[in-house]
Amino acid sequence: MGNCDFVDLAAWAKTKSLRLSWVSTNSIVGLTNRSNRLRGSVGSRQLEINGVKTWLSSPITSRNGLLYITTLDMRTLLDPILVPVRNKPGQRVRVIALDPGHGGRDPGFKVGKEQEKVLTLLWARRLKARLEQAGFEVILTRARDVYIGLDDRVAAAWRARADLFISLHYNAASEGSAAVKGVETYCLTPAGAPSTNVQPEQQGSTAKLPGNTQDTHNILLAYHVQKSMVTRMRVEDRGVRRARFVVLRNTDMPAILVEGGFLSTPDEARRIADPTQRDLLAKAVVEGVLAYKRLVERR
Ligand SMILES: [Zn+2]
Question: How far is the CA of 143 from the centre of ligand 1 (A)?
Answer without folding.
Answer: 16
